[in-house]
Each structure stands twice: as structure tokens, then as C-alpha cells.
Design a protein that fits this description.
The chain is mostly helical and 117 residues long. It has 6 helices and no strands. It folds into 2 domains: 58 residues, 434 Repressor (Amino-terminal Domain); 43 residues, no CATH class.
Length: 117
């Protein structure tokens, strides 16, 4: 399985096209398709791994462990600084959460739920 094959699978799991992922990462529209025959530089590999929440080894085929969904503590997330990159840990249907929805989450979970009970 090539890096491109893994990117295709990961993109599909987020309901995105490979082209959409490339654009979101600031790469050329067709750059990821070129990975069928080559390996990207370390910086691009890390950018892809961070985007998909997988290891570089997974992208390279060295680690066959399937990526797991990460558990997100909304109370912890709500108390992060305003400039925190929410899109790296939380999405809706694989798409970024709108700013107004992030603000609602911040307000709902600004205090730990255990404080309410």
C-alpha cells in the first residue's frame, strides 16, 4: 500500500477528497497524487500525520496499526486558549466546526460538568 493509498483511505474516512485535503494543508491541488511514486519530505509527512492523527510510520507503511478515534474531553477543550487549533482534535462529519458552534461549546463546557452535580 502506497502513501497515496493510505491518504485516500484516511481522506475517505473524513468524507473529504484527496484534493480537498491537499488544499486544506496548503499543498498543490494534485501534489498528494504524486505520492503514488515518491515519498514526501519529512515536514510534509509530519503535516499529513498531524492532520489525520496518525503516525508518520503509519503513513509510510511501517506501522499497520489502524488509527483510533481519539476521545476528546469537551470541558478540557473549552478551557483551552481562544487560539487553540480545534480542527486538529474535533470536527463534525470530517469538516471543521464553525466558530459560532465552538463558542457554544466553550460556554457549555467552560466549567467541568462535575461542578454542576
Amino acid at each position: 500500500m502506497t502513501i497515496l493509498d493510505r491518504i485516500k483511505e484516511l481522506s475517505k474516512s473524513r468524507d473529504k477528497t484527496v484534493k480537498e485535503v491537499a488544499i486544506e494543508l496548503g499543498l498543490g491541488e494534485n501534489y498528494l497524487y504524486s505520492l503514488k511514486n515518491k515519498i514526501p519530505n519529512g515536514q510534509t509527512l509530519q503535516k499529513l500525520a498531524d492532520y489525520f492523527h496518525v503516525s508518520v510510520d503509519y503513513l509510510l507503511g511501517r506501522d499497520e496499526t489502524e488509527p483510533e478515534n481519539q476521545t476528546v474531553d469537551l470541558a478540557e477543550l473549552a478551557n483551552k486558549p481562544k487560539d487553540f487549533d480545534w480542527d486538529s482534535v474535533l470536527s463534525v462529519g470530517g469538516k471543521p466546526i464553525p466558530e459560532e458552534d465552538k463558542e457554544i461549546i466553550r460556554r457549555l463546557f467552560a466549567h467541568k460538568l462535575s461542578d454542576w452535580f
